[in-house]
Amino acid sequence: MKILGFFLVIFCLSCCSNGQDRLDPIDEYYNKHVGDTLASICHESVSNGSLEHGKLLPYHGNNYSYFDTTSYFSGRAFLHEDVLAFTLKAYKELQSVSDRFYRIMECSNKKGGKLLPHQTHQNGTSIDFMMPLTKDHKPYYKLDKTGVSHYWLTFDDAGKYSEDKSVEIDFEAIAQHILLLNEAAKEKGWKIKKVIIKIELKDELYATPSGKKLKANGIYVVQGLSKLVNTLHDEHYHIDFAKF
Ligand SMILES: [Zn+2]
């Protein structure tokens, strides 16, 4: 009887400790910011703009995750509601064409405005996406877990990691993702306004089967960048979306 009582106490304590006060901090943060049901409004431009009623990206889904908890808790993963909806739709669609896991990087502040050190990301319509990688031609995820310092990783002009040439950017996975993002955006009356990727990597992107479709679809991938901006887009691709 004593033993049964002991187990009952442990059971009750564990039930209580798994309650509201022990909610995962990510879930807690998400729950706190998910109540705004008013329609999102983006103002002005990605480089000088603001956002009303921005919606928070769920930290993870079946085949994607946000990349950094500090960034998330600092309120840098907000989007216009339509952008959020079609971004999640594209991840859902990706599950039927790819086994890959994707990571999403910085988005916008809840009310937009400057998101240092980014020059854009000001009105909830810009997203940074982490380059999916392979090592020895197999999906590779170790470098995905470096948090915000991922932005400082460097890749050469053929998409090989500077510290280990057997690690390469998976351009086919990127192109598949962009194509599905474009489709999902169109269904909502939006389009991809601009893809920013290091200029020297465009050849590799367009050489893949899905990259050829990307080019044929006329999705705009930047043709020229300042040296600094070009250098910064070797480990992630940035996309700006706009309404038709
Ligand atoms: Zn960006």
Description:
The protein is an alpha+beta fold. It has one domain (25-243): Muramoyl-pentapeptide Carboxypeptidase, domain 2, CATH 3.30.1380. 33% of the residues lie in helices and 22% in strands. The strands form 5 sheets. It has a 4-stranded antiparallel β-sheet, with no helix packed on it. The chain has a 3-stranded antiparallel β-sheet with strand order 7-13-12, covered by helices on one side. A two-stranded antiparallel ribbon has the order 1-2. A hairpin with a 2-residue loop joins β10 (160-161) and β11 (164-169). α4 (81-94) crosses α5 and α5 (171-187) runs parallel beside α7. The longest helix is centred in the last third of the chain and has 17 residues, at 171-187. The chain starts with a helix and ends with a strand. The structure holds zinc ion. Residues 118, 120-121, 126, 128, 238 line the site of zinc ion.
Bound molecules: zinc ion
Shape: globular
- CATH fold title: Muramoyl-pentapeptide Carboxypeptidase, domain 2
Q: What is the chains' assembly state?
A: single chain
Q: Which spans of ≥5 residues are poorly predicted at pLDDT below 50?
A: 1-20
Please describe the biggest sheet, giving its number of strands, its sense, and whether it closes into a barrel. Answer: 4 strands, antiparallel
Strand content: 15-25%
CATH class: Alpha Beta
Assigned CATH architecture: 2-Layer Sandwich
Helix content: 25-40%
- Determine the number of helices (DSSP H or I, runs of at least 4 residues): 8
CA radius of gyration is 20 Å
Strand order of the largest sheet: 9-8-11-10
Give the total of beta strands.
Answer: 13
Mean pLDDT: 92
- Could you give the distance between the termini? 71 Å
